Amino acid sequence: MAPHSSTRQPVLVGNGQGFWGDSVLGPVRLVNEGPIHYLTLDYLAEVTMSIMQKQRARNPQAGYATDFVKMVERVLPRCIDQGIKIVANAGGVNAQACADAVADVARKLGVSVKIGIVEGDDIMGQLDELMAGGEEFRNLDTDEPLKNHLDKLQSANVYLGAQPIVDALTQGADIVITGRATDPSLVVAPLMYEFGWDLNDHDKIAAATVAGHILECGTQSTGGNFDGWRDVPDMAHIGYPICEAYPDGSFVITKQEGTGGLVSTDTVTAQLLYELGDPHSYLTPDVTADFSTIELEQEGPNRVRVHGIKGRAATPTYKVSMSYSDGYKILGDLTVTGPDAAEKARFTAELLFARLEMDGTTYDDSQKTIEIVGTNTACFPGMIPAADPAEVVMRVGVREYDKRKADRMGAELASLLLSGPPGITGFAAGRPRASEIIGYWPALLSKEKVNASVSITEVKA
Amino acid sequence: MSKTVRLDQIAYGRSGDKGDDSNVGIWARTPAGYEIIERELTPERVRAHFDGIMTGEVTRYELPKLRALNFILGHSLAGGGSGSVRTDAQGKAHARGLLYMEIDVPDDFEV
């Protein structure tokens, strides 16, 4: 195992997973295609936490990102050999079970490893106590108190920051598994650990947070989802982003030699702006970063230097991410062919809802969606005159608290092939069914009410 | 004298979701281009451009060091998250939509 190497300069952090569902090739290639010191992976979205809570309710050993364990199996021997540490929020709502599964993999591979586990983000079991103590968990968007929705709640997690991950690294962890931690903190923690920074080094923590933001969506900073896509070389072999960090808080965004994709001031700017709110106050549990201070320079091919970043103290609260059951939705589509495809598609959608009404099934207008895909209705209504396409997709959707009422729409859809205007096709996917809507409830909680904890599971070969 | 160009000739864009709001980041390809987008892409004009998609207001932030503007499109995702039944429930296409905007540039402006 590599010793703690505070002499490492620069420190190389690569992110190989932008979300649960991203290609497993990302982390495997990052480890195999060149040097890195830390491999970070982001697996959690708001909806993911609620799915994981349900999985754990059925099976006490479930409720984490199982893809992570499969990925570890592919890279662990090389990571241990090269001293590459792994930091991932793969723990979901069951970080201990995730660590146990990783430990099993290590034993199978005959590899010694220390696994750090960060917990304390899951406050589902403490909600009653917290609310009895006066916490209202008002929705940050609507200001509504949580109590009206408590019976439908499915998960409640605070977004933890970098410090508990730093603590796990300090205790010798080769792999750190967290539950809900903010994505940038997965990058902030290794830099704090390597350079000895603490959370009062606001500018440096802000810089590391910006690095984390650039890395967190994987290939979205290396030429993916980028307007200059025609000029992105070899997109099939697109490289994953690497932060080459220096102790003064500056860093270079790059990718492994020989990989495809592009790292330019434009590809980095694209990711800096992604899901950005007020650039002057980018809030994480670690810092308040000012994105308007960021300066970029192209210092070489596929090398963008990032510097000048300023930060302020973090807020005294954690963001809480809660999910709750919020009824059902159903979506169906049919392809309508011409002549007059768009006109017929609109007519067909009206037929559908008229037939349903004949059978006593009506939906609130505000809960219905009709899109004629191919006529600029989905994205640019009124902006661009629609031509007369020879084919369009009629897409209808309904939100409904009564699941049977939602499913009724799915049962009526296919009959339109025989009882509507001519040329309707594209029913290959079969009858659509209602699916549950997972509502998202963002709130705040004082940091002092949360106890993050770190433990270590050790495997000796 | 001025001429009209489509925004994607002088700028790039990326958009994504924040609850029921989307954010649209637009950045100019050149410093001269930033002066134009800063002048032309007013919150009022962007709000009118997305009429029919959004029901809230547009907030604009400036990031001159990145030659960028960041727009928050309030209530533009028909519920957002897993609740929206729109094709573009995450606002991924909103930047595409703005890049279609026709804007005035000086006659001698090179694109």
Q: Tags for this entry?
A:
A: about 450 residues; alpha+beta; GMP Synthetase, Chain A, domain 3; six-stranded antiparallel sheet; 19 strands; B: about 110 residues; elongated
What gyration radius of chain B follows from the Cα positions, in whole Å? 14 Å
The count of strands of chain B amounts to: 6
- The main sheet of chain A orders its strands as 11-12-8-7-1-2-3-6-4-19
Radius of gyration of chain A: 25 Å
Rounded mean pLDDT of chain A is: 94
DSSP helical segment count of chain A: 12
* Residue fraction in strands of chain B: 25-35%
**SSE order of chain B in H/E notation?**
EEEHHEEHE
Name the beta content range of chain A. Answer: 15-25%
- N/C terminus separation of chain B: 16 Å
How would you state the average pLDDT of chain B, rounded? 94
Name the overall outline of chain A: globular
- Give the number of domains of chain A: 2
Q: Given the structure, what is the number of helices of chain B?
A: 3
How many discrete structural domains of chain B? 1
Record field, number of beta strands of chain A: 19
The major β-sheet of chain A equals:
10 strands, mixed
- Provide the low-confidence segments of chain B as ranges: none
Summarize the structure.
The complex is a heterodimer of chains A (461) and B (111). Chain A is of the alpha+beta class and 461 residues long. Chain A is built from twelve helices and 19 strands.
What does this structure look like?
The complex is a heterodimer of chains A (461) and B (111). Helix content of chain A is 29%, strand content 25%. Chain A has 461 residues and is α+β, with helices and mostly antiparallel strands. Chain A has two domains: 11-121 and 159-315, no CATH class; 325-438, GMP Synthetase, Chain A, domain 3, CATH 3.30.300. In chain A, the strands form three sheets. A ten-stranded mixed β-sheet of chain A has the order 11-12-8-7-1-2-3-6-4-19, with helices on both faces. In chain A, strands 5, 14, 15, 16, 17 and 18 form a six-stranded antiparallel β-sheet that branches. Chain A has a three-stranded antiparallel β-sheet with strand order 9-10-13, covered by helices on one side. In chain A, helix 3 (66-82) packs across helix 4. Chain A starts with 10 loop residues before the first strand and ends with a strand. Chain B is of the alpha+beta class and 111 residues long. In chain B, the strands form two sheets. Chain B has a four-stranded antiparallel β-sheet with strand order 2-3-5-4. In chain B, strands 1-6 form a two-stranded antiparallel ribbon. At the A-B interface, helix 9, strand 14, strand 15, strand 16 and strand 18 of A face strand 2, strand 3, strand 4, strand 5 and helix 3 of B.
